[in-house]
Amino acid sequence: MITFEDVVKVYPGGSTAVDHLSLELPTGRLTALVGPSGCGKTTSLRMINRMVTPTSGRILIDGEDVAERDEAALRRGIGYVIQHAGLFPHRTVLDNVATVPVLLGKTRREARAAALELLERVGLSADFAKRYPAQLSGGQQQRVGVARALAADPPIMLMDEPFSAVDPVVREQLHREFLRLQEDLGKTIALVTHDIDEAIKLGDRVAVFRTSGRLAQVGTPRELLAAPADDFVAEFVGRDRGLRGLSFDSAAGLPVRPVDGLLLDDAGRPVGWPGDDGPRDTGGTFTKDDSLRVVADLAIRSPVGIAVRVGPDGAADGLVSHHDLADYLAGRRS
Amino acid sequence: MNLSYLLDPAHWELGAPYSIPTLILAHLGYTVLALLIGTVVALPVGLYIGHTGRGSFLAINAGNAGRSLPTLGLLMLLVTLLGLGLLPVLIALTVLVIPPILTSTYAGMRSLDHRVVDAARGMGMRSWQVLTRVELPMALPVLMGGFRSAALQVVATATVAAAVGLSGLGRLLIDGLAVNDYSRVLAGAIVVAVLAVLVDLFLALVQRWIVSPGLKGIE
């Protein structure tokens, strides 16, 4: 666990970057630090590995004050990923990934062998090993950055806007892969982002910072969407937070009505809704594992206002209209 | 004026005291010594200033001041102070070498992507590891540019050694002028020019060898 104990950072000149921050980042979980620019989130992150020294207060890792650790040794035990990856342009991809193990005393040969495995883990084939960073796309560089931070298998990872330098499509893909990776690895991660959607999507917990370095609210994404602490958080989380909050609710408990009026094929799979010019597309289907947000979206987009549920075999097994969904949500509220 | 001096095989006899190969060797000797001393002085200072950001005014102004000093005048002054010998020549040539190396080292260090340096520190490199494993290799293309221009200047200017009684290709120029043997002067001029080109080619090869392929295209 990483603990901030009443941490203050005032820069020379008097500007306060972090104002009496007390925060706990639980072990094995991803805590997203989010807020507008100048809110002290990056400064807070960089105080964990002592890239920035707090003016007062303490930062503890598993109860031990980081200020008492040797600076370089502390950093070697913490993965560090920054925006634009910050790869060493003069080293091959493989040697970039092998950096920290070599610093920790591994032979270059051992470190490279391990690095090769890690590259595959982040979705890069062995062909990339001998290339230089300048020969990679932004998304590929970011993957190498993650692999490099993971190379010494540190229990803690600090990530500063790791996905913001790539286009939305690639970012989406990196998010998915990263979540899968984190599911396997269970690192204690602090991730800085200015993007509340990214924070909600990736974070087990989200810490919202307001300008001038004060913590506005900490909680699970669901808590944040359901009960913002104040106007600042509510506005930052966004106007559509009601709809987005639905993405944390499973469709498993949602009652459905029997399939009726829908055109089906021989196996019972939906073909479409009857129309004058042949079947009209249902716009997609959902399963019990999907979220209510998916159901709401399908009901809105459906030509007849009805979302179609399918079973594991792809056969339609229930229908939900937007009225049904509204009733269900109303019932849940009372 | 003709090429007779240059093409006379007698002047190319290896080991003969006044032959062209002997003069080239002496000339290269002054050049290498001056480059060596200049690098030993300027490189650490440039790296220190670039790494810490402290004293950058020194890197910039020393560069400008050094460049405007006439080497021949400086040499004469040094000879009156120190007497004849190798020392005043080496000092004068070293003064010529230091500004381009100092300025280019500093410029190379300042041009680095600070995010890469930040990443290096954040990954747990100690200060000298950041310097030797990240900053220096990344600054190398710019640094080598300064070193090559320093080498060119010294090869051309080392002819002044002959003006104070030492050897080197300057002998052909000065002695040739003294006895109105313009064929000898021409030989000296041509050999110095060719030598300068060869030295630069050699350094270009060295640069290709020591600069990481990952940095090509950035230089």
From TrEMBL, chain A:
Residues 2-237 form the ABC transporter domain. It comes from the Bacteria. It is an enzyme of class 7 (translocase). InterPro entries: AAA+_ATPase (IPR003593), ABC_transporter-like_ATP-bd (IPR003439), ABC_transporter-like_CS (IPR017871), P-loop_NTPase (IPR027417). The keyword Protein biosynthesis does not apply. Keywords: ATP-binding, Nucleotide-binding, Transport. The keyword Transport applies. Its EC number is 7.6.2.9. It holds the Pfam family ABC_tran. GO terms for molecular function: ABC-type quaternary ammonium compound transporting activity; ATP binding; ATP hydrolysis activity. PROSITE patterns: ABC_TRANSPORTER_1 (PS00211), ABC_TRANSPORTER_2 (PS50893). Belongs to the ABC transporter superfamily. This is ABC-type quaternary amine transporter.
UniProtKB/TrEMBL annotation, chain B:
Keywords: Membrane, Transmembrane, Transmembrane helix, Transport. One of its GO terms (cellular component) is plasma membrane. It is found in: Cell membrane; Membrane. Residues 24-203 form the ABC transmembrane type-1 domain. It comes from the Bacteria. The chain crosses the membrane at residues 20-50, 71-102, 150-173, 185-206. It is a multi-pass membrane protein. GO terms for biological process: glycine betaine transport; transmembrane transport. It holds the Pfam family BPD_transp_1. Belongs to the binding-protein-dependent transport system permease family. This is Osmoprotectant transport system permease protein. It comes from Actinoplanes campanulatus.
